[in-house]
Design brief:
heterodimer, A: alpha+beta, 2 helices, 18% helix, globular, B: alpha+beta, 8 helices, 35% helix, rod-shaped
Chain lengths: 207, 282
C-alpha cells in the first residue's frame, strides 16, 4: 500500500504533468507560428534603375521574405469555372513572388508582388497585409543588394471579389504613381472551392 | 572595291535624253577647243559623227551609229558588211558607279531576235561576250582608269577642265557584233558617276559620297530619345486572378500540435480522475 507521503507526492504530480504538457504545447505553438527570420539582404545602395527583386521587407507587418519570379499562369477560376489568366504564386507560404511577365519594380510602371494569406491561424507571409497604413515603408532588394525604397500610398483595398474582375480592375486602375502592388487573398475560405473568396491589394510608390 | 553596275539614272538618260546629252557634248566650248587634238581618237570619231560629219548619224540613243572604218576591235569584222534591219533599233548605255573600278557596264538593247550571244567591245579597248535575252545584252567590259584615259585621249587635267566648265558627260563608242555585223553604239559616261575618278584633284562630285555619312550623323542622337520615350507608353494588362490564399495544411498548421496537446492533457486529466476515484487524496 502506498504511504500517506506517497499519496501526497502522487496527488501533486498531476498538475505538474499538465503544466509541462502545456509548456510543451505553447512551445510548439510558438515554434510553428514563428515567421521566417531569414536576415534581409544588406542594403548597399538605392536602386536608380529597375531591379529584379530578390527579397521583400515590410517592417510594419513583420514581413521579411524572399521574392521568387513567377510569370502568368492559366487557371480555372474555382468560383466561375472559367479559364483565366492569373499570377504565378510561390508554393512556400512564407515566400512572395514577383510577376515576372510584368514590369520590373522601379521601371516606371507598376510591378506586382504576391504573397499568401493562409486561412485560419496558419502562417502566411501576407496574413497581415490589410493592416498596412499609408506611409508604411516597403523595401525591395535585388540579388546584388541594391534596394528600392517604397511606401504605402493608399489604404489597403479589401473585398475584391475573385468571382469578378475586381482585382484586374483595381490593378489596371491603380493610383497614379504606384510602383508596386502587393497582392494577397482575403475574405472567407471557401472549402468547396478550395480558395479564399477575395483579394487584398496594397499600392506602394518609390520614395 | 565597289562594284560597277548600270546606273538607272544614266540608263534613263540614254534611253530618254540621248540626244540632249549629245548636244551637251557638242555645246561645250572645252570640247570644241580640244577637238583638234583628238583627231585620231575613236571618241572624237564618234563625236565627229555626232556633229554631222561624214557618215555621222545624229540620231538619239536609239540610233545605230554606222561602223567606223578601221576602228574595229582586233579580230572583229568591221562594219559595212551587214545590212541593218531598219526596224531593229539598237541602243547602248554605260555606267561606272562609284568611280571606274572594274570596268564599264554596258547595256545594249534592240539586238536581233534569236541572237543568243553578242560580242561587245570598246573602240580601241577590250571586249567581252554577253548573253542576249529578249533582245538585250548586259555586260561589264574590263577597263582600268588608265585604259579609259587612253581611250578618251584626254589628260586628267583636261577632264577636270571639262568638268569645271559644266560638262556633265562624255560620249564614247561601243562596238557590238550582231549576227556577225559590227555596229557601233554610243554610250554616255557620266562625270559624277564615272569620270570623276579620273580627275586627280578632289572633284566637286566627291561631296556626294560624303553626304550620306553627314546626313546619317544627326540621326544617332535621336535614337536614345525614341527608346526612352517608348517604355512608358507601353500599357500593361494586369491579370485578374491571384490564388494567394493558401489552403489549410496539416503539416504547417499548429492544429496537429493542438490535437496532440489536447490528447496528452486529456490523458493527464484522466489519470488524475482515476486517482481521485480510487480515493487517493490529492
Amino acid at each position: 500500500m502506498a504511504s500517506p507521503a506517497d499519496r501526497d507526492a502522487g496527488s501533486s504530480s498531476g498538475p505538474v504533468v499538465l503544466l509541462v504538457l502545456l509548456t510543451l504545447l505553447a512551445g510548439g505553438w510558438w515554434y510553428g507560428y514563428g515567421r521566417d527570420t531569414t536576415p534581409a539582404v544588406p542594403a548597399t545602395s538605392t536602386a536608380e534603375v529597375p531591379l529584379v527583386p530578390a527579397a521583400l521587407s515590410v517592417p510594419a507587418i513583420g514581413v521579411q521574405a524572399p521574392v521568387e519570379q513567377r510569370g502568368t499562369v492559366d487557371y480555372t477560376n474555382p468560383f466561375t469555372g472559367q479559364q483565366v489568366a492569373g499570377y504565378g504564386v510561390p508554393e512556400d507560404m512564407a515566400a512572395t513572388s514577383w510577376w515576372s511577365d510584368g514590369p520590373e519594380p522601379g521601371s516606371g510602371q507598376m510591378a506586382v508582388v504576391l504573397g499568401h494569406d493562409v486561412p485560419g491561424d496558419a502562417p502566411g507571409v501576407f496574413d497581415r497585409l490589410d493592416e498596412l497604413q499609408v506611409g508604411d515603408p516597403v523595401v525591395l532588394t535585388a540579388a546584388d543588394g541594391s534596394q528600392l525604397q517604397l511606401q504605402v500610398v493608399q489604404a489597403p483595398l479589401t473585398g475584391l471579389d475573385k468571382s469578378t474582375s475586381d482585382l484586374s480592375d483595381a490593378l489596371n486602375g491603380h493610383p497614379e504613381g504606384a510602383d508596386v502592388a502587393l497582392v494577397t487573398c482575403g475574405g472567407e475560405y471557401d472549402s468547396s472551392a478550395g480558395a479564399s473568396e477575395e483579394n487584398v491589394v496594397v499600392f506602394a510608390s518609390v520614395v | 572595291m565597289p562594284q560597277l553596275h548600270l546606273s538607272r539614272r544614266t540608263g534613263r538618260r540614254l534611253l530618254a535624253t540621248g540626244a540632249i546629252a549629245a548636244v551637251a557634248v557638242l555645246g561645250t566650248p572645252a570640247v570644241a577647243s580640244a577637238a583638234p587634238s583628238l583627231t585620231d581618237n575613236p571618241v572624237t570619231d564618234v563625236l565627229g559623227g555626232l556633229t554631222g560629219g561624214a557618215g555621222g548619224s545624229t540620231g538619239g540613243s536609239g540610233t545605230v551609229v554606222p561602223g567606223l572604218p578601221g576602228g574595229g576591235l582586233p579580230g572583229l569584222p568591221t562594219g559595212g558588211s551587214g545590212t541593218p534591219d531598219p526596224t531593229e533599233i539598237i541602243s547602248g548605255g554605260a555606267a561606272c558607279v562609284q568611280g571606274l573600278v572594274t570596268g564599264i557596264q554596258v547595256s545594249v538593247t534592240g539586238l536581233a531576235t534569236g541572237l543568243t550571244e553578242a560580242l561587245i567591245g570598246l573602240l580601241g579597248g577590250g571586249s567581252t561576250t554577253a548573253p542576249v535575252e529578249d533582245g538585250e545584252a548586259v555586260t561589264t567590259i574590263p577597263v582600268t582608269q588608265a585604259q579609259l584615259l587612253n581611250l578618251l585621249d584626254l589628260s586628267p587635267e583636261a577632264i577636270a577642265d571639262l568638268f569645271e566648265n559644266g560638262q556633265e558627260s562624255l560620249t564614247m563608242a561601243v562596238q557590238v557584233i550582231v549576227d556577225g555585223v559590227t555596229r557601233t553604239v554610243q554610250v554616255v559616261l557620266d562625270f559624277a558617276e564615272c569620270l570623276a575618278a579620273l580627275i586627280p584633284t578632289p572633284a566637286p562630285a566627291a561631296p556626294t559620297t560624303t553626304t550620306p555619312p553627314t546626313s546619317a550623323a544627326p540621326v544617332e542622337p535621336a535614337a536614345p530619345a525614341v527608346t526612352t520615350s517608348a517604355a512608358p507608353v507601353q500599357a500593361v494588362a494586369y491579370p485578374g486572378y491571384a490564388p494567394t490564399g493558401g489552403a489549410p495544411s496539416d503539416d504547417s498548421s499548429p492544429a496537429g500540435l493542438l490535437g496532440l496537446g489536447a490528447l496528452v492533457a486529456a490523458s493527464g486529466g484522466g489519470a488524475l480522475w482515476l486517482r481521485a476515484r480510487r480515493g487517493v487524496a490529492g
